[in-house]
Amino acid sequence: MKLLRNVILAACMGLGLASCGDRERATDVAAREGVLMMGNGSEPKGLDPHLVTGVPENKIISALLEGLISYHPTDDLKPEPGMAESWESNDDYTVWTFHLRDAKWSNGDPVRAGDFAYSWQRMLTPALGAEYAPMLYVIKGAQAFHNSETDDFSTVGVKVIDDETLQVTLEGPTPYFLNMLKHYSFFPVNPRVVEEFGGMGDRASRWSTFENYVGNGPFVLEKWVTNQVIRVKPNPTYWDAKTVKLKGIEFYPVENAATEETMFRGGRLHMTNTVQPDKIPVFKEKMPNELKIEPYLGTYFYRVNVTRPPFDNPKVREALAISFDKQLLVDKVTKGGQAPATGYVPAGIPGYATSDKVKFDPERGRQLLAEAGYPGGKGFPKAEILINTSEAHRKIAEAMQAMWKQNLGIDVGIYNQEWKVYLDSQSNLDYDISRSAWIGDYVHPSTFIDMFTTGNGNNDTGWANPQYDRLVAQAQVAKSEEERLGLLREAENLLLTDLPIVPVYWYTRVYLKDPRIQGWNPKLLDNHPYKYVSINAE
Amino acid sequence: MAKFITLRFLQGILVLLGIYAVTFFLVAATPGSPFSSERAIQPEILAQIEAFYGYDKPTSERFIVSLGNILHGDFGPSAVYANRSVTDIIAESFPVSLKLGSISLAIALLLGIPAGILAAVKKNTWLDYVPMSTAMAGICLPTFVMGPLLALVFGLIFAVLPVAGWFGPEFVVLPSATLGLYYAAYFARLTRGGMLEMLNQDWVRTARAKGVPERTIVWKHCLKGGLIPAITFLGPALAGIISGSFVVETIFQVPGLGQWFVKGALNRDDFLILGLTVLFASLIVLMNLLVDIAQVALNPRLKYD
């Protein structure tokens, strides 16, 4: 019965692929009209740049708003002028001056330097409870203001020189400040509009609803049907409106990867957000022009609870980290062209090569485990891998389990918890080994390294190393970028020696893309400035 | 009858209050919070957010406040979806589910009941075997198999219907067929069973012996009683079908209520969970009341008491 069904399904699929293009499909009509239809994961939790934290939100907000600096269409580091026409910094990168261009909000208001000061003050207003507020701590005095040590915003290093000039003083030398500015937590909001709908500290402000939204980006909201579609159209008041090629973008919140694939093949999407891992080999063969596998600035790793024996012993942790075949795992399990993580900070950051400290070496793994008192895995206490409920994570955990068993002779179990429970367990250190991942906020090693300092809210391993903390602190005030990267390199080496984490693989973005889409280039943070994107009718 | 309805209505209110209280304390006791995320939130920021939504108060106090609000028809804000209230969310998605649900139910009844009657009347002929084995297959084939199968055949192979979305009449066909066929199968089997039971009664034999035409026996004497099992199932089916089917909504990207049940629970969106629970419970209470009334109307042996 099952076989029969598979045969029918396979036959149907073959026919389905063959019959594509028989009649005009929604994607063909949209392509002719210059409208891009893209899968966007899930319904955005909101479109207020100061309150959201997710990827689907980011993808829509970056069409609606523009910061001082924008993402460059091809280069991950190059600053693309946004609201700032030009900028300069002093010699040690602590004081930055931005010269704003003549730009307008979608309601016709001019965009002024004061709008940025207002927006950053809003971000740092304690009552707003903005989760990304710590991103702004790079600005002098921002942390004190945010922690209510003062309510005088003039103590924060944001100075409006005049309507077109904004001066920002930072806590320390930060040459990569321009990269941070690309993040939506630095995006402006229109103060007049925010004040009209409840003011700075109102979390439930309705300024960012469909009816009230005012942006300064290349697109404006045209339609928002919950759980269905968000459509944007070109913003006529955008300063660079002539560059914008698309006539619209439709963001579809499709959570289910199978549905998304059906929609792509059925002519209802030009681009998917993701792909089911099991289907990747099929797509490689059948749809090589559509399947895209691109590097992505993220690391998949396991956290190890260093407060629990036997994991308090660094030898045990190292044995775990080097005794499974990462290459085999990415080839046979994840299948999405991921790179085996021999270090923690992913590849692709210019000037910072990846570490190769954690290589597959089962021989040495066995030896370390024996030194730790568990020769051949004998006497190793029963430990468990915590995963959040997901088929993909389970498969990876099962592969790790099997390889550890084979190479070290130890038995680990797997147990899953639903997402929110898993988050609780992880932050309460209520686990042995926990599946984890981290995606960079900006292109710099510090977005990965900083989180493992002692007591950092994202550390979640119980690991504390004063030398590591010192290196990270020194890196924050380093005089040159070379020196900073050197210090971060040292810190990463320390992390990879102590190994409170087991690096598994470096992420890739895997998705399906209609070959008609132009100007959509591989980007480390998956940020694609829409104004350069276009779509061919043919 | 008025007394019966009033009494059942008051009973319903009590049931709803009970369900509300149980759900509230269960949700409050569940680990995880609507505000937790993969990126740790600083304790100070978390405290601000919690204070905004009233989470800084003890559970019992929150219960009283939220109960008061609900009695005034205010289900509160969504704790996860900024600047949207639970009422907004329900107002947006309920009509979609209502439309999908009523069309699916119509399909289910129009296919299921005639098939069931036919099968019972033509017992042990191909007119019985074919619809009943189809129905059995329909019950066994869950919507998550049926849905993609229909999408594959009609959306991709013949490309006559859109595979997903909810933009016009043609988008309603596949999801309502998936949901409708599933329930049609149930109704067919229940109707067949009910009809057979009636047709085997002694008085039917008597009627036949007296020469009452078969048509009169089936349509006039047996149909009412034969439908009772189907009607009983109609109550929960109606509530379930109207409040949305998560699976069908996910497969076909239908922006209905079902998705919110799951999102609410996964996000720990307490207010949304409570609002939806109250809505779903009210629907069930209401549907069951209607079913009870219908049953008495169909079965003279039952009385209001």
Commentary on this structure:
The complex is a heterodimer of chains A (538) and B (305). Chain A has 538 residues and is of the alpha+beta class. Helices cover 31% and strands 19% of the residues of chain A. In chain A, helix 10 (314-322) runs antiparallel to helix 12 (362-371) and helix 16 (466-476) runs antiparallel to helix 17. In chain A, the strands form five sheets. A six-stranded mixed sheet of chain A has the order 12-16-11-15-13-14, with helices on both faces. In chain A, strands 1-10-9-8 form a four-stranded mixed sheet. In chain A, strand 6 (158-162) and strand 7 (165-169) form a beta hairpin. Chain B is mostly helical and 305 residues long. Chain B has a domain at 95-263: MetI-like fold, CATH 1.10.3720.10. Chain B is built from 13 helices and no strands. In chain B, helix 4 (86-121) packs across helix 7, helix 4 packs parallel to helix 13 (270-298) and helix 11 (246-252) crosses helix 12. The mean pLDDT of chain B is 88. Chains A and B meet through helix 1, helix 8 and helix 14 of A and helix 2, helix 4, helix 6, helix 11 and helix 12 of B.
- The overall strand count of chain A is 18
Our measurement of the CA-to-CA distance between the termini of chain B, rounded to an integer number of angstroms, reads 9 Å
Outline type of chain A: globular
Give the averaged pLDDT of chain B, no decimals: 88
The coarse overall form of chain B would be flat
CATH architecture of the domain at 95-263 in chain B: Orthogonal Bundle
Q: Report the helical percentage of chain B.
A: over 70%
User: CATH H level of the domain at 95-263 in chain B: which superfamily?
Assistant: MetI-like
Gyration radius of chain B (Cα, Å) is 24 Å
How would the blueprint of this fold be written?
The complex is a heterodimer of chains A (538) and B (305).
Chain A: H1 2-18, H2 26-33, E1 35-39, H3 55-64, E2 69-70, E3 80-81, E4 84-89, E5 95-100, H4 113-124, H5 142-146, E6 158-162, E7 165-169, H6 177-181, H7 191-196, E8 219-225, E9 229-234, E10 248-252, H8 257-265, H9 280-286, E11 291-304, H10 314-322, H11 326-334, E12 339-340, H12 362-371, E13 383-388, H13 391-408, E14 412-417, H14 419-427, E15 433-439, H15 446-449, H16 466-476, H17 481-498, E16 501-512, E17 517-518, E18 534-535
Parallel strand pairs in A: 1-10, 13-14, 13-15
Antiparallel strand pairs in A: 2-3, 4-5, 5-7, 6-7, 8-9, 9-10, 11-15, 11-16, 12-16, 17-18
Chain B: H1 2-29, H2 43-52, H3 59-71, H4 86-121, H5 126-140, H6 143-157, H7 173-199, H8 202-209, H9 214-226, H10 228-242, H11 246-252, H12 257-267, H13 270-298
Helix pairs in contact in B: 1-13, 4-5, 4-7, 4-10, 4-13, 5-7, 6-7, 6-11, 7-9, 7-10, 7-11, 10-13, 11-12, 12-13
